[in-house]
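Work Package 3 committed the consortium to producing structural models of liganded targets before the mid-term review. Because experimental data for this complex are still outstanding, the team generated a predictive model from sequence and the ligand definition alone, so that downstream docking and mutagenesis planning could proceed in parallel. The input record is reproduced below exactly as it was submitted to the modelling pipeline, together with the SMILES string for S-adenosylmethionine.
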Amino acid sequence: MTDHAPWIPVDIDVERASPARVYDYLLGGNWNFDIDRMMARQAIDRMPWVGDLARYNRQFLGRAVRFCAVRGIRQFLDLGSGMPTAKSVHEMAWDIDSGARVVYVEQEPVAVAHGGLILADVTGVEMIGADMRDVEGVLNHPTTSALLDFEEPIAVLMASSLHYVLDDDEAERTVRRYLDAVAPGSYFVLSHISDSGADGADKVKDLVESSKTTSSAGVARSRAWIEGVLSGLEVAEPGVVYTSQWRPDTQLRLVHDLPAHSSLLAAVARKP
Ligand SMILES: C[S@@+](CC[C@H](N)C(=O)[O-])C[C@H]1O[C@@H](n2cnc3c(N)ncnc32)[C@H](O)[C@@H]1O
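The resulting structure, written out as tokens with the ligand in place, is given here.
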């Protein structure tokens, strides 16, 4: 991986795993390095259903984007977007309206480089390299200003990304500042790893604990904390549930028949 393909920035540290690339590997993608695959395998050893966790989260995201689009949302701000892998948020939204606009925000350089390549000729969709905690920087970024109209509703997406903001107050403040900036009628889409479930909570704690010394450190939060972040919003049915339980397309199979094994609580909520 020293010979640099266009999607690999020249200054990338290939010895340091990244959540975006570990997640990409778990989803079966190719935009990852040995160190990412090693970390993914370690995670699988600790929590054998971690691949399901990734897939069920991505499927939740697809259903949530569709839910928003069907309700007339045409603008999406995807915070901690990861690689724009198939199916990307803009492709999901375009199933409903091909005019939907998407700003992807991602701090992982490989994801940003890859995103830049595949979005180069795509109209109405851009990726910016930024830390989503820099709310003013994201909102005032020229790309954001050019693509998103803050007088109109926007879906703010934080799918499996808020748990990388380790400080509780900062995480809550970050959400609030984005939601303050968007118009009434906007939506907030959230999925967040949680150790509140009875089934698998010990594995979640173990996984999160082991991540603390890595570049993929995350934090599991309680159901009460996650519900608190949604306060003041109209939480859509079925409320805060595991990703696999959020308006599933099929009742045929949930994660090993134990929804808690999707390990991420999820919700979609509307700003009144
Ligand atoms: C597990 S992936 C989820 C990707 C996508 N949102 C999804 O649900 O399929 C989490 C992503 O959040 C990104 N991320 C974490 N903290 C971030 C931050 N402070 N600013 C921007 N991106 C961040 C990581 O780089 C990673 O790509």
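Reviewers should note the following from the model. The pocket of S-adenosylmethionine is lined by residues 18-20, 23, 57-58, 61, 80-82, 105-108, 111, 131-133, 159-161, 164-165 (CB under 6 Å). These observations will guide the Year 2 experiments.
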